[in-house]
Amino acid sequence: MLLRPAAQALREALKMDRLARAIALLDELIAFPTISSASNLEIIARLAARFSEAGARVELFHDSAGRKANLFATLGPDGPGGIVLSGHTDVVPAEGPGWSADPFRMRQQDGRLYGRGSCDMKGFLAATLACLPDFTAAELRRPLHFAFTYDEEVGCLGARQLVRELQEREIAPAMAIIGEPTGMRLVEGHKGCNEYTTRFTGTQGHGSTPEAGVNAAEYAVRFVHHLLSLRDELRARARVESRFEPPWSTLNVGQIHGGTARNVLAGTAEVEWETRPVVAADGLFMRDAVRAFCEEDLLPEMRRIAPESRVETEIIGEIAGLVPMAENPARDLVARLTGETDAACVAFGTEAGLFQAMGISAVICGPGAIAQAHQPDEFLEVTQLARCLDMLCGLARTLQTG
């Protein structure tokens, strides 16, 4: 009887030590200003060193320019199956008002850990690192992989490269847990995210004779007007059974650029826009409708005046959504580890659909609130970090006995 309180006290002490280690690691990770426009090689080198010290087999996959890299590390036996813990290393910019302190120096206050990337999603990365001693102490019977990517925030560029590398090497985990901030709730579905830039090339000229040239800005405006009409059509295509909020595929015009002065015809213009399709068919509908409008309506008018006129749409990224599945072993495993019973569908996108497209069962579950992501004074509650550590330690026990 006397041993039971002592054992409980030891477990609590180990939990507190693990939490303190995770907080220190988060402080270290936040200090790397891994904005998507910058290189992530320094943080990747630090992560690779920590995994190597823990005895993991580590591979780095660099982008074509050599400025970015994915990390893929493995503990446990070789072979198919097992689980991959997935997260991204990049963060959105931290410019502009609203920050109470340096966004790249972690600040702990009132049970919160402040800093850019604290919840999206370096908190999850720190938790996985803090649990490395637990993973290495367990005699893992199945592989445990760690996939930390670049440029998730600008089109899941790193994850797209990573899944190609895994397919070429015939590495086939059975399950993927993506640690995006969900408040440690289960998320089994999200919309896709298709991002585009449409560029218009017309002719510069004097503003006093607009009919003599092709004003790229005016055609960009007409293009945006057409996009907004397609938004209404997407709404009409909503499925009754949709679990998303809103239930239809969405469209957003993010940025419009063009021209040089108010009295000069704009020679160039561009529109940055995105759709978030509930189903792949909605994404195809949008792509075909936009192509037809540009080729059949806008371009013939532009080229009657200036044959060299162009309208070109660049695909920044077309990321598959995560489709809710009746049978989802990853969801069921995380439900057992966390005690959560309900699985939600969300509007924000992740890398999960890329893993699902490989035939990997995927679920999203991570510490922090999505409402804090991309905000000034972004924070992660310490209690959320502690819950994530509990889940990962439970996973270590499961992989040891399963």
DSSP helical segment count: 10
Separation of the first and last Cα atoms: 30 Å
> Which structural class best describes the helix and strand composition?
alpha/beta
Strands of the widest sheet, in order across it, are: 1-2-6-3-7-16
Poorly predicted runs? none
What is the N-to-C order of secondary-structure elements (H for helix, E for strand)? HHEEEEEHHEHEEEEHEEEHEHEHEEH
What percent strand? 15-25%
**Number of E strands:** 17
Give the proportion of residues in helices: 25-40%
Rg measurement, Å: 24 Å
Tell me, briefly, the overall form.
elongated
Q: Indicate the mean pLDDT.
A: 94
Characterization of the model:
This protein is of the alpha/beta class and 402 residues long. The protein contains ten helices and 17 strands. It has helices at residues 3-30, 41-53, 118-130, 132-137, 157-168, 216-236, 280-305, 329-338, 352-357, 382-401, and strands spanning 57-62, 69-75, 83-88, 107-109, 112-114, 144-149, 175-178, 186-190, 193-201, 205-206, 250-258, 264-265, 268-276, 310-319, 343-346, 361-364, 379-381. The protein has a six-stranded mixed beta sheet, with helices on both faces. The protein has a four-stranded antiparallel beta sheet with strand order 11-13-9-14, with helices on one face. A three-stranded antiparallel beta sheet has the order 4-5-17. A hairpin with a 6-residue loop joins β1 and β2 (69-75). α1 packs across α3 (118-130) and α6 (216-236) runs antiparallel to α7. The chain starts with a helix and ends with a helix. The mean pLDDT is 94.
